[in-house]
Design goal:
The chain is α/β, with parallel strands linked by helices. The protein is globular. Helix 13 runs antiparallel to helix 14 and helix 16 crosses helix 20 (578-596). The structure holds 6-O-phosphono-alpha-D-glucopyranose. 6-O-phosphono-alpha-D-glucopyranose (G6P) is lined by residues 306-309, 353-355, 358, 361, 404-406, 607-611.
Length: 614
């Protein structure tokens, strides 16, 4: 979703901001803009569509200055167009803002400001912020104070960056609620501001994350952080170890392809240092702050998440219930706070999120906090809000994930929660030593098993060619691989725009079977797990109705190869870990179908990597 970049220093701001915005393209956007202070006057360029359009505009009409802000917009209020793209000016031309989030009361504010004489030049909610700041500047207030006053009028959650020609030696940045992050990068005689780390990591590794309700005054030499009501804040400087090269495509055509192939490494890193293989004694998840006392006290866990992370949560439920014998409910985060869940201090709410900034997931966490639950998160983005809000966290070891369709940040939580289940099971006395040792020994095989799935890419490509022109697809799975069916279907629809449905295989006869004919490929996830025989009979039923069956099956399974039209082979995997291998051919299948159809795999239409609005 929307991305923000700001720069103040002594270098030419325009290329720095444009290259930062480029690194945020993966978040999804439909227009972009940049404002630079040129001889103490604000100059703006904005354009609809891809960043290259904005770059062309800037090349035709260059602007040079040492202070500026930029934005990639994902439309919420008003169509994607140059006039609705950020930055937005007020009336005087002295204040310009970029903004992530939604001003929930913007209609009231717009009416109020219009009655005071403001004229609006866009359909956006953001523009009211610039007018509000001007209202207070007109009364002679300093920029930071005027911004503070303005922000108190805004309902909703926001990340806002303000530049003014009245006080050209500073940029104001604020985070209000949970509309995505604001990070300030500290350089030598220069400072960077961004909504996400990848935008600034090529310049500095020393960063400060703003917390909710904080406002920063960023100058060339310094950073001052206060709360919205003016109290000074002692901020912490984080040193980020992410390698910016990790965010480059390298030899791959798309980030998604690269990220699929990175899973051997990400899963090795996920396990590394957290597991005692030698003695099979245990799992170390120190950041979770899980004491034996807490482990025994927990009566229920809610897992809450959105999209791919929610599918990982569904598998997490089966893992924790089976291994630790503890009740788990899974809630789509956007629904959680609207159903008044029954929560007390013996309840844990575990949020799963790649970005750690998904508005619905953060809102679910807030709901849980208010109701007194213990809050955990399983998050990839270092320093993100979901990591900081939680009482304890498990950090996914994926490195930056750029492709909008999540892949490595799907398999990492499967393994993270498997480890969590072992830890909980051990502390609660649900697992004896030999069970624990066997589960841990199985874990050790995961990276190798995933590598063996990846080695079968040529076979997946063949199936992709057979399916490239299909219009619809149905994915069936059962037991622990039922959510794999959801995830396989989600991957396909996200990037190939083929209508795909994931279904619990046992439900096929209650409706979807009516759809099956020779035009409807059925992708059946049927590894040798406890539900194998049942899946086999689903495949027979689909074949009996003329369906084309593509089975995901265990290497050497002749019963499946005798009935399926195509087979995507996975190595024999312990059933609790089988979702980690069965999803790999499905990720590759979706990727190759979309690539064959010539689509924008990394930035599919209408989607955003990090959804920071409700
Ligand atoms: C967006 C992305 C999905 C992702 C979901 C949750 O919809 O396009 O790929 O699964 O958000 O994101 P999170 O960052 O919370 O895991």
């Amino acid at each position: 979703m929307c991305g923000i970049v700001g720069y103040i220093g002594s270098r030419d701001a325009t290329p720095i901001i444009l290259s930062g915005l480029k690194r945020l393209e993966y978040r999804g956007y439909d227009s972009a803009g940049i404002a630079v202070l040129v001889n103490d006057r604000i100059e703006i360029r904005r354009e609809a569509g891809k960043l290259s359009n904005l770059e062309n505009l800037v090349n035709d009409a260059p602007m040079h200055g040492v202070t500026g802000i930029g934005h990639t917009r994902w439309a919420t209020h008003g169509e994607p167009s140059a006039r609705n793209a950020h930055p937005h000016l007020g009336m005087t031309g002295e204040v310009v803002v970029v903004h992530n989030g939604i001003v929930e009361n913007f209609l009231e504010l717009r009416q109020e400001l219009s009655s005071e004489g403001a004229i609006f030049n866009s359909d956006t909610d953001t523009e009211v912020i610039a007018h509000l700041i001007e209202r207070y500047l007109a009364a002679g207030t300093r920029l930071v104070q005027a911004s503070r006053h303005a922000f108190t009028h805004l309902k909703g959650a926001h990340a806002i960056v303000v530049l003014s020609s009245r006080e050209p030696d500073q940029i104001i940045a604020a985070r209000i609620g949970n509309a995505g992050g604001v990070v300030v990068g500290l350089g030598r005689d220069e400072m960077f501001i961004a909504s996400d780390l990848p935008a600034i990591l090529e310049h500095t590794r020393h960063v400060v994350f703003l917390e909710s309700s904080q406002i920063a005054v960023v100058t060339r030499q310094g950073l001052e952080v206060t709360t919205l009501d003016g109290k000074a804040v002692d901020y912490e400087i984080h040193n980020v170890s992410w390698d910016p090269v990790a965010a480059e495509k390298g030899e791959y055509r798309h980030f998604m392809e690269k990220e699929i192939h990175e899973q051997v490494r990400s899963l090795t890193d996920t396990i590394d240092g957290r597991v005692d293989f030698e003695n099979g004694n245990g799992i170390r998840l120190p950041e979770l702050n899980l004491t034996p006392e807490l482990a025994k006290r927990i009566r229920k866990i809610f897992i809450t998440a959105c999209g791919t992370a929610a599918h990982a949560g569904m598998i997490g439920k089966i893992l924790i219930e089976h291994i630790a014998r503890l009740t788990v409910e899974v809630d789509i985060a956007s629904e959680f706070r609207y159903r008044d869940p029954i929560i007390d201090r013996d309840t844990v709410v575990l949020a799963i999120s790649q970005s750690g900034e998904t508005a619905d997931t953060l809102a679910a966490m807030e709901e849980a906090r208010q109701k007194g639950a213990v809050l955990w998160s399983n998050v990839n983005a270092i320093g993100s809000q979901a990591m900081r809000l939680a009482d304890g966290y498990i950090s996914m070891q994926c490195g930056p994930e750029i492709g909008v369709a999540s892949t490595k940040a799907y398999t990492a939580p499967l393994v993270d929660i498997y480890m969590l289940a072992i830890l909980l099971g051990s502390l609660r006395g649900a697992l004896d030593k030999s069970q624990r040792q066997r589960l841990i020994a199985d874990l050790r095989r995961v990276p190798d098993l995933v590598g063996r799935c990846l080695n079968r890419e040529a076979q997946v490509k063949k199936v992709a060619r057979a399916l490239a022109n299909t219009q619809h697809c149905i994915y069936l799975g059962r037991g622990i691989n039922m959510p794999t069916a959801y995830e396989g279907a989600l991957k396909l629809k996200e990037i190939s725009y083929i209508h795909a449905e994931g279904y619990p295989a046992g439900e096929m006869k209650h409706g979807p079977i009516a759809l099956i004919d020779k035009e409807m490929p059925v992708i059946a996830i049927a590894p040798q797990d406890p539900w194998y025989e049942k899946m086999l009979s689903q495949i027979e039923q689909a074949k009996a109705r003329g369906g084309i069956v593509i089975a995901v099956a265990t290497e050497g399974d002749e019963r499946i190869s005798a009935i399926a039209d195509h087979v995507l082979w996975v190595p024999e995997t312990p059933w609790l870990l089988s979702p980690v291998t069965t999803v790999i051919p499905l990720q590759m299948l979706a990727y190759h179908i979309a690539a064959l159809r010539g689509l924008d795999v990394d930035q599919p239409r209408n989607l955003a990597k990090s959804v920071t609005v409700e």
